[in-house]
Backbone:
């Protein structure tokens, strides 16, 4: 007897037994998978905020050049480093 025919047979002949079997199966599947603590890709930064900006071609070229010459993974990393360097330079000039 195929699985489908057996399922249909049990469902028709003994609906209570069928419900019990279905519930047992659901309980078993609840034990599998799901989110696990520490699973997945670790976050590099805790909080990231998306910002959209329009930049000149010259500025984009500077960012790309900086990214490539400093072996950075993303343009975001390059932008952050350039902003921090500019901010730190400005503060040093004030002192």
Residues:
């Amino acid at each position: 007897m195929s699985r489908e025919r057996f399922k249909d047979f049990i469902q028709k002949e003994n609906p209570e037994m069928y419900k019990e079997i279905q519930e047992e199966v659901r309980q078993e599947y609840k034990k599998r998978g799901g989110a696990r603590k520490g699973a997945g890709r670790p976050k590099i930064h805790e909080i990231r905020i998306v910002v959209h900006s329009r930049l000149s071609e010259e500025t984009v070229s500077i960012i790309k050049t900086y990214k490539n010459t400093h072996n950075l993974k993303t343009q975001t990393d390059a932008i952050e480093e350039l902003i921090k360097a500019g901010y730190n330079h400005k503060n040093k000039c004030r002192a």
Summary: The mean pLDDT is 84. Residues 1-32 form one domain. The chain has two domains: 1-32, 57-94. The helical segments are 3-13, 15-30, 57-69, 75-94.
